[in-house]
Amino acid sequence: MMRVWILPMLFVLCGSAVATGLYFEEGPGTAAALLLPFLALAGVHSPLIFPRSIGAREAERRSAVDGRPVVFWRPGCKYCVRLRLRLGRSARQLHWVDIWRDEAGAAEVRAANHGNETVPTVVVAGRPHTNPDAAWVREQLSPRA
Prior knowledge:
2 domains, elongated, Glutaredoxin, about 140 residues, Glutaredoxin domain-containing protein, 4-stranded mixed beta sheet, alpha+beta, Grx-like_ET, transmembrane helix, Thioredoxin-like_sf
């Protein structure tokens, strides 16, 4: 649990340290202007912007029932953040598995990517797709005619 918050907390701590130094040297306006990007980076890399993660087995079960893709991700991954942001609201329709919290999910990603934990890995109808385009993932959500 704590591992997922390491990167966001580093952004907050580093930004606070730099902003504190600037506060005394150049004033509160400059310090606040610098602190905001650090806080934004912390928010983007935190698990808060991702839908609630579930276990890999539960995601597979739900996907078998509703046909929606499963996305394997990890906090701090810039490609996962990019996919999540480009999906927008449709990201809530996917089943998200945090591979740092779920060993079965990490094992599935390693099996799909020749032993590497390359994320995001999106599984559609049992077939893994590594780092797919957000438009393609969105197409997988639309009902088949």
